[in-house]
Amino acid sequence: MKLLYGKNNFAGPISGADELVVTYATELKRAGHDTSVLLIQPPLNRDPLVARLRNAHVPFDTLASTAFSTSLAAARRLAIRAMRTFTPASNAILSNSRKVVFNLLQQYHDACCGYLERTKPDIMHVLTPDPGAVMLIRAAHETKIPVVYQEVGIPFHPPGFEEVYERFLSVLPLCTSVAALSPGLANELSRVAPHGTPVQVLPLISRDNTHTLASQEESQRVTFGFAARLEHLKGPIRLLSAFATAHQTNSEIELKIAGKGSQRDEFLNKSRGFGVEEKCRLVGVYTSRKDRDQYMSSIDVFVLPSLSEGTPTVIIEAMAHGKPIIATAVGGVPDLVSEDVGILVPPEDNAALAAAMVRLAGDTKLRRTMGLAARKRYEQLFTPEAVLPLLVNFYERVLEVHVNGHPSGNGHGRLPASIHPWVNG
Q1: 305 and 163, same structural domain?
Q2: 172 and 258 housed in the same domain
Q3: pLDDT tens per residue across span 199-210
Q4: Assign residue 284 a region: left if phi > 0, alpha if psi is -120 to 50, beta otherwise?
Q5: In 193-321, which residue ranges form alpha helices assigned H by DSSP?
Q6: Which of 51, 127, 184, 367 has the smallest set of CB atoms within 10 Å of its CB?
Q7: Which domain holds residue 361?
Q8: What is the pLDDT of residues 94-152, one digit of tens each?
């Protein structure tokens, strides 16, 4: 099979959707399949994801020029400044700027059709509901290439993106198949997809190079880790507040933050105000698997107190390293974090978050037991060995539907129900 993965752009460090594209493409390439990636907008120079594609010999192309992306970025900055200056009109400015971006990206429709006619992929796999995805799906449909859409978050979330999804839902009927990352997210997408569109489950793949798991030491010095954008929806300030509360009970705990974002300065200021500045370390963004592995090996418990999530890659990476998880029960997180591998807390409940941190900090045996269970769950659900057979089978079914209008019914492409715990045969 010749598989093409399409996306508007690479959004920057620690983007789950970007990681998914690169991992699917490189793992399938490693397994002997013909994969490539198409972005509308070119990435930044020395983008680590592009380097991974090249190292895996996955062809990579873009439709727009660097000048186009530069102009679009400049227009975004102007819109942001205008929203800050004219706060009462910020919603209107945001809506109008999104419409402008949408219309600009639709202008690449003909170029995309030409690209697809030249390269002739068997399937085009498009991710995330951004304005570029609308154009990619329409182009694939027009050139009679079966197109798969995969949702990596929750429809209509985070708040403020309702109009984006409403516009995007109009192209879902053009897709041969629609997928989500976990059973819970598939159910969410099924509720809003038009015409009763069936939604399949395609899990994340995470390749882990950890062959031995670090043992939990008999020590009160427990390091809690967070790796995500330092933005409101990811909850870094809520985490800091809960950590300060937990620190009053256990003064030996530490907090290690990987990421960057608009709340970095606020985080630093509040850590001083809470009197825990010396116990909080901001280590920046890791951009390589080696850096990621070193970071995960340096923490004892992983925490992600988000307000909105899809299926966070970073939780799966922490599970692969045998780390117990504390996370908010949002989106697809409950599909990942069962009670044997971690603790789920309500979003915005700082007291519950602090209590979970105190509980795990004070119980070495529980951390060890949860860490081992987390590693086992990772091996069952997210390794290449667990996911690739499901993914290949899914693409075979998509081609059958495209050619025959329905699966052949002769047993071809059917998997036993045990092939993956989330998916029936």
Answers
A1: no
A2: no
A3: 999 999 988 766
A4: left
A5: 236-249, 264-274, 289-297, 313-320
A6: 51
A7: 223-381
A8: 666 667 777 788 889 999 999 999 999 999 999 988 778 999 999 999 999 999 999 98
